[in-house]
Prior knowledge:
Layout: E1 2-4, H1 8-23, H2 29-54, E2 60-64, H3 71-77, E3 81-86, H4 89-94, E4 108-110, E5 123-129, H5 138-148, E6 149-160, H6 164-172, H7 186-195, E7 198-206, H8 214-221, H9 224-229, H10 235-247, E8 251-258, E9 271-273, H11 283-286, H12 292-308
Parallel strand pairs: 2-3, 2-5, 3-4, 5-6
Antiparallel strand pairs: 1-9, 6-8, 7-8
Helix pairs in contact: 2-12
Amino acid sequence: MGYDKNEKNEVEKRIATKRQLQVNLLDKIQLHYDFAYPSFKICQLSSRILKHDIKKINPIAIDIACGSTPMGKMLSESGFNAYRCELDPNFLYAGLRWKHFNLDIGKHIVCDATILPFRDNSVDVVFSKEFVHHLCDYDLLFMEINRVLKKDGIFLMIEPTSWILFSLTQKFAKEKGDPQHHYETINRYFSALKRTGFLPYRYYLYNYGSKRLKFLNMIKNSFHTQLYSMSKTSKVGLLLKMLVQRLIDGSSVVFSRKVENMPTYKERPKIEIIEPSRLVLDENYLNDARMEKFDEILNDVYNDVYKRIPHFT
Length: 313
């Protein structure tokens, strides 16, 4: 698979950036260790909620822009027929270390998330973590997700969202943030979901933690109990969370159901194939002893979740 030929210049920049990040990961390994625990934890809690909400045998789930995370493994362990989709073959390859008997040949697909190689109305769950803010036109992505999802299928989006202090600093800063990042408010994401055929039905706030703002962490951590209890959000609770999200940074965890089919956003484009020669990683990368720490972190996440939720399965 590949990407839209008309978007070649922009996509090639994204692939080059991703490849460089993955190739240099071992050079900044401690930063990735620190990020891994909260990242893996929200994935595990989310996969548990998805399993609760789908209530089907062997449902199909795709993890778009999956990177090298273990979400495909977690979905498989939760009973999903999971697929991993990623534009950069190096990110995709790095994720092969997360093994599960369900994640066999054909389940790891190099593709653009806005041109998914799945039939209309064929998928039960689409999962996206920290990807939407890399796109200028996220309506295009949401429409493609709408196309592949079955009626009442679930789109789970975990996204850092724009908050007041960030917006102000970007407005007046001499040096702007990463031009490939386009952070939006949660209100705008909700509006986009509704106009592309989705109805958000669960909304949680998740805090990755900040050493500088510990008192704010206490406020944000108070919302984590709802993730463990799988509580749905009331209208009043939704407004409160949106207010907190605008005042304090963090990630929004949004579960939406497909409630209507939308017309095709645009014709399927001509595809620029991503050649296997783009892959520069090899087994030495996967077998590097420093990567074993990520296995330990994932086990710590499992133990923590089992401790908080004794009946977890």
